[in-house]
Amino acid sequence: MPPQMTAPAAGGQATHNMQGIAVPASSVNPPLFFAKTRRHTLKEKAVSFASSLTGGSQNQDVFELRKSDILASVMVKFSGTLVVTGGTTNVSMRWPYDLLRAKFTANGASNVINAGGSQLKVREVMKRGDFNDRGVSQSLRGATVNQGSLASAAESWGVGAGASAIAAGSYNVELYWIVPVAEDEIDLSGGVFLATSTADLTLSLDWLPMNQLFSGGSATNVALTGTTTVVSKKFSIPIGTDGEIVIPDLSVFHSIISTRSTDIQNGKNEIRVLGQGGGKSLLRSWFQVWSGAGTAASPLAMNATNFGEQAWRYGNNETPDVFPDGQYLRELNERHFCCDIGGQWGFGCHDFASELEFRDAVDMSTTSDLRLLVDIPAGVSLTTPAIEYVTETIYTAGAAA
Asked: Which of 90, 117, 87 is nearest to 101 (CA)?
């Protein structure tokens, strides 16, 4: 995707629009940049966390990242203790990863990233086929699984997702999420230029209330305390032979946006994808169908029982990909991502980037009225169902977010 050119600056020097920031065109030299840049991993900030059923929930932490280098990604680490007192409690399937929802804005572009924690965890698996959870034991819905948990061996959930009758006690919790600012940390497509006083970058972490994570049983309280640490991965900006800064092509933003809709039921559903527009390319879209009320809600496993034909469509009736049933999509996703994302967590993904994104990415300016086709057979029991889907796109800096 070519960078946008602006009118020549004073002295006849043309400039590039780098995500709303003008820089001299002579500074854009990807080969020289990648030959000279150096990776910097920096602790941005650490803050305390405290949330409980009886003492009130922690709602949000906001971080303004330091203005230096080119930002590639942010890791959020939570380390703490879960304490159940007075009896047993039940655990929502939102635990542990949907404890967090990350929102990221950059240089006037709001909503660059706005997604739940589990959606970010599965995206990391999708992007990196060499990163998988095979051999990592975790408990989901009362069963021990060794693949498909999305967990790493360094993590500790404390208690299992969807577990019931968790006994009173103290449980260690160690969780990690990656906020992928750049689509790719090798070519830095979508990375954010921060080496200017006009850069404006904010990471907001929204925390799910404890009463949406734990409920029922005889426990008198459930409390989670600890520390949230934000660590950035950045790349230095080298200086060229003439004293100019040297940067790669940063003319696009990388966006991950999740949407929740209750407009879903048994039968063939067409879910219109929000946020379409010119200048955007769709890399992948992944989704879950949730059923159940409150903390009892859980995602439907992606299999042939719960899901019939799965597809995506645009225009009047153009349907490029049709998968026979949920089990087929689950198998295909596992082949692409080396992880069973459709099993316990129930994710399904229409992927256009894992094999060759420049060939397969969907141009959203020529695929009007794009929607997801989700077929749920009549025999599947649904209670207050909802679909949560994510779109991952890259778009030019001047396009609407």
From this structure: 117
